[in-house]
# Entry
Amino acid sequence: MFTVPQTIRAQRLATCQSCKHYVSSTQSCGTLIFGRKLTPEELAEAEENNKITHYRRKTRLCGCVMPNKVRFAVYRCPINKWGRYRLNEEESELLREFVSSLPEGGRINIETVKALNEWVYKITGHRMKCQTCKGAELVNWIKREASNLE
# Structure
C-alpha cells in the first residue's frame, strides 16, 4: 500500500487537528472506533456518536486514529477536508515512460538505481537506504505499482 510523503502527512494531520470533530485525547476523527477492540455495545455507541450532518449531508466520521490514517494514500477525510493522494497525470505518464525503459533482467546502472529511488520516494515518502543491492527488487516493485495506475 502506498504511503504519502511526510509533508503531506503533516498537512493532513494539521487539518485534522484543527477540525471540530477531532478528539485530541484519542487523536481520532470523532469517537474512536479503530485502533482498539470494542465490545458490540461500545461499537454501536461509537458509530451512533459519529453520525453527523455536514453541509446538509449525512455522513459518518471514521473513528480512526488519525496519525495512522494520514500516512496512507488510499484514505480520505470523511468530510472531504483532504482526499486520496495520487500522482498527477503528468507524473503518472513520466512513471509509465520510466518503467517502460527499465530492463527486463540483468544488472542496472547506478543512475537507474538513483532514478528508482526517487520514484520510490515520490510514491511512498521513504528513502531507500541501500543504493545498489535493492535494484532488481525495486524494478519489480515499481513495475507492479505502475501497472496499478492503469
Remarks:
- The chain has two domains: 6-69, 89-147.
- The beta strands are 22-23, 28-29, 51-54, 57-60.
